[in-house]
């Protein structure tokens, strides 16, 4: 296929440790598109970290902030950016509806549970919902049904970021 990929919002979803932010940044640079990380937008808006929001306000408040941040982002006039959602955002039905209405391409980055656990342990990011192993595993299982609603799935285990980015680029080209 020739020419630039068609422009639609690209939304990376997946569990904690799936690589949404890492892949999203490289993908955005490669496609010369803007990149947003939903958690980062929330932190900037709230002037505090996700961990602090969970600790001081609780998950329910965080979920409301997450939906509000997604609404605001989808209202932007540009329609060609890449966004990495936090691991729980796509699980909320109202967020999925918003993405569908916006015509976003939803791409699930997947990896086996053990790999996600390993990545979360080795990364510095403090994740409130990754502190307890049993709860982490339970959440992983509970979210599979919602994740399966993504339009595309990309396996990340044992792959170079550039390889994942090229697969996503191919998906973008066929998804218009
Ligand atoms: C969450 C994942 C986090 C962050 C928050 C809640 C979740 O984002 O949004 O801690 O519910 O899975 P990452 O998936 O980027 O770690």
What's the topology here?
Elements: E1 10-13, H1 20-31, E2 35-37, H2 38-46, H3 50-57, H4 59-74, E3 82-84, H5 93-101, E4 105-110, H6 113-122, H7 133-147, E5 152-155, H8 161-174
Parallel strand pairs: 1-3, 1-4, 2-3, 4-5
Descriptive notes:
It is a single chain. The two termini are 13 Å apart. The chain is an alpha/beta fold. Helix content is 53%, strand content 11%. Helix 1 packs across helix 8, helix 2 crosses helix 4 (59-74) and helix 4 packs parallel to helix 5. Strands 2-3-1-4-5 form a five-stranded parallel beta sheet. It is globular, with a radius of gyration of 16 Å. Residues 16, 20, 39, 50, 86-88, 127-129 line the site of shikimate-3-phosphate.
Brief summary of the model shown:
By secondary structure, the protein is of the alpha/beta class. The protein has helices at residues 20-31, 38-46, 50-57, 59-74, 93-101, 113-122, 133-147, 161-174; strands at residues 10-13, 35-37, 82-84, 105-110, 152-155. The longest helix is centred in the middle third of the chain and has 16 residues, at 59-74.
N-to-C SSE string, H for helix and E for strand: EHEHHHEHEHHEH
Strand fraction: 5-15%
Helix content class: 40-55%
**What's the mean pLDDT score?**
95
Characterize the quaternary organization of these chains. single chain
Biggest sheet character: 5 strands, parallel
**What hetero molecules are in the model?**
shikimate-3-phosphate
Low-confidence stretches: none
Number of helices, counting only DSSP H or I runs of 4 residues or more: 8
What is the global morphology?
globular
Q: How does the helix and strand content classify structurally? A: alpha/beta
State the strand order across the main sheet: 2-3-1-4-5
Radius of gyration over all CA atoms, rounded: 16 Å
- What gap, in angstroms, lies between the N and C termini? 13 Å
Number of strand segments:
5
